[in-house]
Amino acid sequence: APLTINRASAIAAVASGAVMISFSSIFVRLAQVGPSASGFYRMLFGSLALIMTAALLRQRPQTNGTSQLWLALAGLLFAADLTVWHRSILSIGPGLATVLANFQVFVLIGAGTLFLGERITPRTLIAVILALLGLMMLVGPGWNQLTDQWRSGVLLGLATAVFYACFLLLLRRLQANPDPTSQVWNMAQVSAWTALFM
What we know:
The chain has 198 residues and is mainly alpha-helical.
């Protein structure tokens, strides 16, 4: 019978994954390899782990050309995301680079409003305004006096937010597949495509 996961173990797995992924920017900074190389190895090892997980869950991959095209596009977007984010980490440090990358939330809000017909609540609007003010206070003062490397690191961090938001929107489309038995395989293939592009 296929391996099943109960709710408690699923929540524990997601929580432990969130804790582990929060150290990724620090490891990128500590690794003695280039930004693209670190992204390649992250995705290569990730895809191998996901392939083994899919095999344990007895899931099957999607093999039609259209789904592969979408998976490859997701891999390309994630490769772009990791490429600029890792360079941002090396330019401005893991903390600020991660803060900037998390602006993807606001890109998603904008995309949801413009393209998906979602409404912005007053609370969300206040959060967006406060976040933008915080960003200006964080990187605005003395902008012209900062080094070119630091300024490019900030811009790369913001580019990360855009690429990651686009990746998440496409991932949302992929995960909407009515066949739940291919979800882990989908992520394995996205990771493999990302490693290939990197």
